[in-house]
Amino acid sequence: MGLKRDVSLSTGLRYRGPAGYLTFILHRIGGLGMGIFITLHILASFVGGRFGGAINGIYENWAFQIFIFFCVMFHAINGLRITILDLFPKLLDYQTEAIWIEWAVFIPLYGISVFVILQTALGG
Amino acid sequence: MEVTVKIFRYNPEKDKRGNYVTYKVDADENDRVLDVLEYIKGKMDGALSFRRSCAHGVCGSDAMRINGRNMLACKVLVRDVGTNITVEPILGLPIKKDLIVDMEPFFDNYKKVLPYFINDSALPENGRERLQSPEERARFDETTKCILCAACTTSCPSFWANGEYYGPAAIVNAHRFIFDSRDEAADQRLQILAETDGIARCHTAYNCTVACPREIKVTKAIGEVKMAMMTGKLD
Ligand code: HEM
Ligand code: SF4
Ligand code: FES
Predict the structure, then answer these.
(1) Interatomic CA distance for residues A87 and B223, integer angstroms
(2) C-alpha distances out from residue B149 to B53, B152, B204, Å
(3) Residue A92 is nearest to which of B17, B92, B217, comparing CB atoms?
(4) What is the spatial distance between Cα B184 and Cα B124, in angstroms, rounded to a whole number?
(5) Which residue of A has its CA nearest to B102?
(6) How many angstroms separate the Cα of B72 from the Cα of each of B26, B108, B234?
(7) Reduced to 3 states, what is the DSSP secondary structure of residue B35?
(8) pLDDT tens figures, B87-130
């Protein structure tokens, strides 16, 4: 008798974790996003023609570019933060500060990227 | 002040699934959440089930999810969590009744890392204790403080996804002996932790560190064990 262990994705996502939990979730979204993008890209080049063109249209769209840029840039910067803390466990005393620094690097870089994407897309 | 407490309830004799019951309780802001639960059990609903023993943050029996985060009910005050309190069982272990989970899988994982002192070599010549300098003792002081409450392991997304993962608490207790200069089984423990469901499942989400009621820097302890595994050095 009893309820089996069962943690659904939505229950897990609703856990009130610290800043590191958010970066953990975004890292996985970023990795998945890049994976999907690369798959589409290879598929589009492979099949070509009208179907390939249609897929190309998806990721040449500026909204998709803003999303995929988030994935790449966040995953790369967060991955770098993880790697540094992995290599120097002493720095784990400052894990929260490390994540602040990460955001301080990410937000301006990503902001500029979004600005450039939008300017190109809307300004022509 | 009036406090609204929403509690996860599950009666294995009647219910197919859990549900939530809300109670309105008059409480003081300096009451602990455990006091509120005791009040509900004592005066309003005697069937409410939860574990507690010491009521002073020592025994580790009352870890639960309070407003969505793992805590010991006896270590958190009403004023720290507000007047709307949701209390749920910790995640990733089978639920036996209400807030009581089956801790066996947790202790099974704990036992895997040989969480006891191992030294088969002869005693020092005078036949007395194996000495250790204060610095050597300090090396693993933090991880001696673990009370096995499971707040860390059941806050870990890797453990939610895979109950075979030994979990942060097991690694904390491995750390306690791996870095003890008197112990001789560090290599054995590192080998056990190198298994598929061992330390590689840690992806540093930090939920464990925040959940630990003993303020053990759990992710750091895990990081040190990862490093020892990579370099083979115990410093
Ligand atoms: C800029 C270069 C990259 C860096 C620095 C980087 C860094 C990392 C790191 C450190 C992890 C381990 C995270 C952890 O243990 O929690 C990871 C996981 C991962 N990365 Fe990357 N990565 C990069 C590029 C990519 C690319 C191009 C893809 C997609 C094709 C990708 C997909 C993933 C996925 C799916 C995971 C697994 C996450 C999980 O464990 O659930 N990464 N990355
Ligand atoms: S490390 Fe902290 S949270 Fe984990 S079992 Fe020990 S006392 Fe509880
Ligand atoms: S009842 Fe013992 S730790 Fe809370």
Answers:
(1) 9
(2) 12, 8, 20
(3) B217
(4) 15
(5) A2
(6) 21, 22, 32
(7) helix
(8) 999 999 999 999 999 999 999 999 999 999 999 999 988 888 89
